Amino acid sequence: MKRGMIPMNAITKTTALILVVVVVIAVTGIVLYISTRPPTTTPTPTQPTTTPITTPTTTPTKTETTATPTTTPTTPTTTTPTKTPTTPLPGLVKITIGDVEVTVPREFADFVEKAKRGEVRVTIYFGHAFTPEEREGFLKAIDKFMKAYPGVEVKEFRYGGMSELQGQISAIAQIPPEQREQFIGSIPEVFTWAHDWIGWFADAGWIIPLDDIIGSQAYQDIYPHILGTAMAAVTYRGKAYGLPYAGEAIALFVNTKLVSTPPKTFDEMKAVMEQYYNPDVGTYGVAIPGTSMYHINAWVTAYGGFFYDEATKELGFTKPETAEGIKFFIANIYRYVNVLAGVDHTTQRNLFGEGKTPFYISGPWDVSYAVKTFGVGNFTVVQLPKIGDKVPKPFAGFRNLYITNMAIVGAKERQYAVALFILYIALDNDAIITLVNECGYVPVKNSVAEYIIQHSSENPLYPVIIGFFRQLVNAVPMPKDKNMQSVWGADTPLGAIWQAYANKLQETKSVDQAVEAAVSVVDQALRDAYNQVAPKIEK
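RESULT FIELD:
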């Protein structure tokens, strides 16, 4: 979900106005709105097929062990769930999903058994913007779910981008619940995206909490089985808005044909970058697919800076530590990048894939590319090296399964089917291992992470996944409240830094002068960013 790390822009004021008018004039207006949005700005999703494309796979070995990572990062302040009572409360019973016992309402448990025996017939719609490689792997996990619970059919909505989905679920939220049934099959009941939309969407009333369907006791049962930062990331105002099934953070890809021993310190990394940086012959020290706040946050945090503190609502743009971290990145990493070729995902990834740079700073979404390009065993992934005693902590994103208002339309079995699908993808070991093996996803379920660590010698992909997992537990979860939509907008004024670098490099062909030019505008760009964002922050 590379995509995922940078959230889409909020719905414009004009769109919001249209939605209000739509609600006033009639339900048919919503149909027109959803079906006629211009494809140039919001790609139309492919209509779901009768049967999802599936490919049978060998069932991965299932592990029954539960383990907690040895290193746990600082997490947002949350209320620690109480332990599950030995005897369920009246009206609640225990079911098992994967190797996790979950206490749920009896009615939901009855539905699960009927779905397992094929005694019900429910169809739900799943929205996503997967890459082709991701889609293929995820459909295998969906196929496993439908074989385990033949009473539930999952159809997909494929989006070229997620702004169309935003428009759909915001529009349907304006319609009275009793008038939404005609839209079943047109708008997904469940979709996947990084967790940073939760605050915005929840405050807008576009999504519903999972624990409203399966109860708070179920959430408390699940909490100890999943990485604490991941569970905290999907929790908002005391409610669980879905469940995380994978994590993402940028880390260091290493071409082991060029660098046999990955760097453990930044000095070691810099020595390699210096060795390979030779623009005259077309080689560079490192590739990085962007200079957004998401991409440079690791070095900002290493120096004690930040962009936005969700707990205090404080902006960190004017903190000297934030400026220091950006200046370090420019002088010690960006100088080794092929800037003039373009600092975009495709260009930078290809430089790494073509062997023109020994390092590539990116996330798990590029694992499939690296496997196809190098072959498993010819690259690895490690944490971003420490700078002395300073630890770079990139943003962490957690792939979440969101529930839209469409889930509570029609028969109650529909919302139960959605909840069961979420529980399966997040808790079933075989499904998670399928996503690891097929998509290169980084698991956040503790027992699966432990399984991969214990079996790292059995699959050459697992050391790569372990590298990302170790980075993930040393990362900072992206803030998820609605203020982040304004904070992300600060990339525009911060763009002056990267433009100054490119202009000077183009003019003089001197990296030293380009670094000097970019560093000289950092403080002003950060002040401009603060001035743009500060008036929009809601305390």
